[in-house]
Amino acid sequence: MASSVYPAPTNEGGIVGQKPNMQEIFHFPAQKAALENIHTRPNGRLLLTAFTSGDLYTLDPFARSPQAQVLGSLPGATGLCGIAAVDEAANIYAIGGGDHISFGFKPGSTAVWVVKIGHDNDNDNSCTVLARIPVDATLNGMASIPAAPHLVLVADSKGGRIMRINTQTRQVDVAFIDPSLGPAVAFPIGINGARIRDNYLYFTNSGQGTFGRIPIDQQGNKVGDAEIITTLPQPPAAPDNAYDDFTFDLAGNAYIALHSSSFVKLTPRGVRTVFLNETGYSPGLIEPTSAALSLDGTALYLCTAGKTVGTTVYGGQVFKVKL
């Protein structure tokens, strides 16, 4: 994959591009499943985590009437966050989580669970926990290293660190610390989303209002300075106007969830636009949190946390958006 080059952004945060074709394919009942992360598996089905539950969900977006199903509950977790593929051929994934509280987890509860989905090729609706690896950090986004996918990098949102988990040996260490990853004084969450692309760890920082990248080697070590690609025109104000998770399309465009009701698109040339917001849609994007690319690269799957709007309580949503 060709390397993406990001010059200084044009800072066009108010420009809205052509309205894409967005379809809500599923929403949870009120006050259930504040979705946090989404991942597209090789069979096209989606993995979903939620901050409000220790349940790991699956959703088949190609079903006639898509319904989220619980694959299993991860012991000791009341909230889940990041997803990383460890061995997709064997259906093995790493899932972060713990005993969830506001803006984080209770100390001592956080861990990465290594799970295997299905017991054979004919059973894709359950999961087995292979390991629970304690990690002393405020876990958030996760990404496996392409050259060594058993090594998973995990964001520590309050510590401003990247933790490294060896899912084979269960060893945990600090891959690196950087000021660009830490929280802001007025907002207790720093690094949020994390993705690896072209030997860079890309990240969002909710408190600092930034999207950036750090060069890494094939073991996840930092090998250069952090580069801030874009900064929000207005400072973050929890819980609004804050970057969350993101994904890339095949051309290297980044799609970043922006609380409380939009997605921002950032091109490799540094042009930033509002890709999608709630205008013209009902009920619209209600606290967007993450995105994943479809297998063929022609669509995005988006998820939201939901919230109370007026007297109506919305659960988490899953959308499909054609590119």
Notes on the protein architecture:
The protein has 323 residues and is mainly β. Helix content is 0%, strand content 50%. The protein is built from no helices and 28 strands. It has strands spanning 21-27, 35-40, 46-50, 55-59, 69-73, 79-87, 92-98, 100-101, 104-105, 111-117, 127-134, 139-145, 148-156, 161-166, 172-177, 191-197, 200-205, 210-215, 227-231, 242-248, 254-259, 262-266, 272-277, 288-293, 299-304, 308-309, 312-313, 317-322. A four-stranded antiparallel β-sheet has the order 1-28-25-24, with no helix packed on it. Strand 21 and strand 22 (262-266) form a beta hairpin. The chain is globular, with a radius of gyration of 18 Å.
Strand and helix layout:
Elements (H helix, E strand, L loop, with lengths): L20 E7 L7 E6 L5 E5 L4 E5 L9 E5 L5 E9 L4 E7 L1 E2 L2 E2 L5 E7 L9 E8 L4 E7 L2 E9 L4 E6 L5 E6 L13 E7 L2 E6 L4 E6 L11 E5 L10 E7 L5 E6 L2 E5 L5 E6 L10 E6 L5 E6 L3 E2 L2 E2 L3 E6 L1
Antiparallel strand pairs: 1-28, 2-3, 3-4, 4-5, 6-7, 7-10, 8-9, 10-11, 12-13, 13-14, 14-15, 16-17, 17-18, 18-19, 20-21, 21-22, 22-23, 24-25, 25-28, 26-27
